[in-house]
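Write out this protein's structure.
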Amino acid sequence: MMYGFRFILFSLSCILVFCSWILQGQSYDLILKNGIVVDPKNKIHSKKDIGIKDGKIIAVSNTIKENVSKKIIDVSGMYVCPGLIDLHTHVFVGNNTETFANGINSISPDDFTLKAGVTTVVDAGTSGYRNFPLFKSQVIDKSKTRILAFLNIAANGMTGDSLQEDIHTMNADSASSIAIQFPGQIVGIKIGHIEKYHGEEPFNLALDAANQIHKPLFVECHLPFISMTRQLDKMRQGDIITHSYEEIKEREPILDSTGKLRDYILKAREKGILFDLGHGGAGFWFSQAIPAIRQGLLVNSFGTDMHRFSVNAGMKDLLNVMSKFMAMGLSLDQVVERATCFPAKSIHREDLGSLSIGNVADIAVISIRNGQFGYFDAGGNKIMGSNKLECELTIRNGQVVWDLNGLNAKPFKNTK
């Protein structure tokens, strides 16, 4: 009798030890299996598994055993990329009509980003030092998408009225003070959309603020009071200019009348100034982009200038922009790096934009559709492409936040 009791205790003990071993063996919360990892920063373009635990990437390996994970998602035939970064957006959405700052011309990022594989956006100066705290509490803190920001030198950001033009409220010390107060969100200073003549003072104030916080100046070059040549001359290495392939009357295009890149554009690139796309509704023209790329000026980042109007025009979303550039001849690796590690480096956030071990698990799983697809620019001009990128799965901070075809779902079993 005593022997039988001891045998039962021994058996229970073995079962508990085995269960404990099994639980300890579950080293991952999620494994993405059999995907083609495209991670330009780490120079990876090959089939690998990715292991995720506690919201972090803890393994990138040729094979990870399936019995060590709570969840397995098979992504065979798909491309596994770092979560995409959109460097130029307007997401300070609110109820003010006819404005971007706290207004309806901005958009709620989660409605558009996650389904496109975008896990991080940078708001391009929609807020200024007076209303950034509202932006943070109202939008940034409530969004699944990571939101960073260039702080506008205009105190109230992009209000589209006399406040935006009021040079007396532009203050480098006030802007830098707010940027220092929110270092986790503010990645630089922005100047743009100032239409009245103020000389160079607004630009100098923005540059002063950027110098104070040791972060980039983001220049939206619609500044009629200071020439493009002068803007680029004053900008520093690592500063960013957007709307690179634009062709509108408000600014001088990067190509001269013969279709040649202007000398001062080439000098700016050699100086280390970074060129952002800034597609928007009117910011992208094939007539500028295709000749410029052929002459060696390929943008550093694919900022979409995402807002209420551009998402319903030729831009649509970041994946559509990437697909458009593939139709123009770029490789998959080239478009991925301009949506991941390149923008991350430009805003001094190299903890983002790659699948490095220890990084937060922000991941985009992308498929490539084959067929005939049309891509058009701000002038209504179209080119055709044979590929289109489509986001199958988006993971933000280790959690699935977008699932196009139910990769993360269980098969339905009809028990009736």
